[in-house]
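Reproducibility note. Readers wishing to regenerate the assembly model reported in the main text can use the exact inputs given here. Chain order matters: entities are listed in the order in which they were concatenated for prediction.
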Amino acid sequence: MLTKRIIPCLDVKDGRVVKGTSFINLRDAGDPVELASFYYREGADELVFLDITATPEGRDTMVDVVRRISEQVFMPLTVGGGLRTLDDMRRMLKAGADKVSVNTAAVLNPDLIRRGADKFGSQCIVVAIDAKRLAGEEGGWEVYISSGQKPIGIDAIKWARRAVELGAGELLLTSMDADGHRAGYDIELTRAISEAVNVPVIASGGAGSLKDLELALEAGRADAVLAASIFHYGSHSIRETKEYLAGRGIPVRL
Amino acid sequence: MIAIIDYGAGNLRSVVNAITRLGYQPIIGTSPADVLEARVVILPGVGAAASTMESLKKMGLVKPLRSYIAAGRPFFGVCLGLQVLFTSTEEGGGHQCLDVIPGRVKKLPSGQKVPHMGWNQVRQKLDHPVFSGIPDDSHFYFVHSYYVEPDDRALVAGETEYGLPLCSVIARDKLVATQFHPEKSGELGLRMYHNFLKLALE
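Running the prediction on these inputs yields the following structure tokens for the assembly.
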């Protein structure tokens, strides 16, 4: 049976993991290679790296980081953050990333999705969507770009469908309302998107407890859950998370 | 010599990394001579079958690969490297493949998400050395939208449930191919490559 994926997310700046972690057994908790190896041994199903570097030098560093991680870690790796062109994608894939995630660049230039999928295959192209709930009775969610700074007046469900038509093989969905609050994923949003498309959806933003992961996978119908702080700060290990989910009848790889 | 075939599309970095981790020094194969002189050929793959076949043709690798496999020499195909062994694929409006294994490649049925992406179980149908030390129903990492259907079901060494029981491993002597990615499947994936190389090089 296909299992639900548990995905730790690491933010990397200039080759270092930011939003530190508090694992006691690591020599250097800011080293992305060491953290990746740690999660690999722990049984994470996949890793997502978000490069929040703003400079070209930092970006070169990220390519090198991906290369070193892929030499040690034999699990799927997704890299996102600041990828704008086919060439940016190619560099990451050649370095050892399995998938690249695009957000702002895909919204501004949707053809990037199509060309990326044609060139590298849909399975490589993850479209990341940052969505925020609209005020008012009609509800719905609006897409934001530029790290959640800028609303663009596009409906998140419509954009999700369009991204998949263009060739996205997976969606990484972040609720901006929930992100950072550790009070649970936006279940309604997750479910709406997951039911609107026929590709896997990774729920992101808001995980504070194991129950939150369970809800996103069950009620939200997500195929995978991404979380940062609940894993990084050692509140829950990957193993413990999976045992909890398995105990509630959710298929996971133990 | 272990040749990992580079036809310009597949992400072969991870396959190279996995084989290197096991203590071997693979070469990147791009020419007919690389295939014919190899002791082991590994054909990795992601992307589309049509463009893969196109590249193999352009590089003059179709005949060498066919005769290499026909001679019973050690071969491991990964994902598309499994699919291109078959007679033809439905992908991209229909294309002929290497036709080393009679059968076809079909689109995954609707009713579930496509691509089939993530960790799924492999039920072992044959007793083959490639499974040595790997428990039945272990999880491996899949990502694909098409699946293979060999005419001869006796070739099916592993099966995986995704809307239907699909063939996830082919194994006959030193010809092994998997629909999943061993290089992305953790320690058990590495174990599978280890088993294969041991068999191949004995």
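We highlight two features of this model. Chain B has one domain: 2-201. Residues 8 and 22 of chain B are 24 Å apart (CA to CA).
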